[in-house]
Design brief:
The chain has 238 residues and is an alpha+beta fold. The chain is 43% helix and 11% strand. The strands form three sheets. It has a three-stranded antiparallel sheet, with no helix packed on it. A two-stranded antiparallel sheet has the order 4-5. Strands 6-7 form a two-stranded parallel sheet. Helix 5 runs parallel beside helix 7 and helix 6 packs antiparallel against helix 7.
């Protein structure tokens, strides 16, 4: 069977938006042939593709840097670049990079090859054979489990997809590719409002197996933090 996927533009205030129309296909066909697209549209846009079109929006291709590291892939912190014991970062996550500020296409694995090997060399240098195991605090990991359970059982009234959409619209409107100071100043206030609303997000799926609702809610927190940093930093550049 050949699937015909239709693309069209919106009407009214959203006339410039691009939408993907799948509602002309039988629901059972969508469930069998396009389950991934159907689930993604439901999670990210709150759209039932069997009944309505899904918006087509720009997204992040990749990120580079963010975790302060030295050339040995050891994570550092503070003004004195104090080494965080036992924590290494390699690949595009680390700030020690062979690419500079950006990378060329098809070079995405270069950092991983170079600094992945260096991470192994650093580990071999630091961890000696027959060394005693690290003693962990009695409550190690409890804060992470508590955070997970808090979000898993959150009963807020705002669906994750709705707040994510608000975040997307805010960033696209006030911090697009071509920016100006006035919009960025407004965007700082709008992002602050989005951050406050995250406390009222609710998760409907409390299961522990393939819980995409929970994962997307946790990831939304990361997106909001990154968006806020981007907006504030951009506005501060003048």
């Amino acid at each position: 069977m050949t699937l015909e996927i239709r693309e069209g533009r919106g009407v009214g205030p959203n006339k410039d938006h691009i939408y993907l129309h799948l509602d002309h296909l039988p629901p059972e066909t969508l469930a069998e042939r396009l389950p991934g697209i159907s689930e993604t549209a439901k999670i990210f846009a709150g759209v039932d593709v069997t009944k309505e079109p899904a918006p087509v929006l720009p997204t992040v291709h990749y990120n580079m840097g963010g975790i302060p590291t030295n050339w040995k892939t050891q994570v550092v912190k503070g003004e004195c670049n104090t080494i965080v014991p036992g924590l290494l970062a390699a690949g595009e996550a680390g700030c020690a990079s062979v690419h500079g500020a950006n990378r060329l296409g098809a070079n995405s694995l270069l950092d991983l090859v170079v600094f992945g090997r260096q991470a192994a060399d650093t580990t071999a240098e630091l961890v000696k054979p027959n060394s005693p195991p690290v003693t962990l605090p009695a409550n190690a990991g409890e804060s992470s489990i508590a955070r997970l359970d808090k979000m898993r059982h959150s009963k807020g009234l705002i669906p994750t997809a709705d707040l994510r959409r608000e975040l997307q619209v805010t960033m696209q409107k006030y911090a697009p590719v071509y920016r100006n100071g006035a919009d960025l100043a407004i965007g700082k206030e709008k992002i602050a409002e989005v951050m406050k609303k995250y406390a009222d997000v609710g998760v409907s799926d409390t299961s522990m197996i393939w819980n995409t609702d929970l994962i997307e809610t946790l990831e939304l927190e990361n997106l909001i933090n990154q968006a806020a940093q981007q907006m504030v930093a951009a506005e501060n550049r003048k």
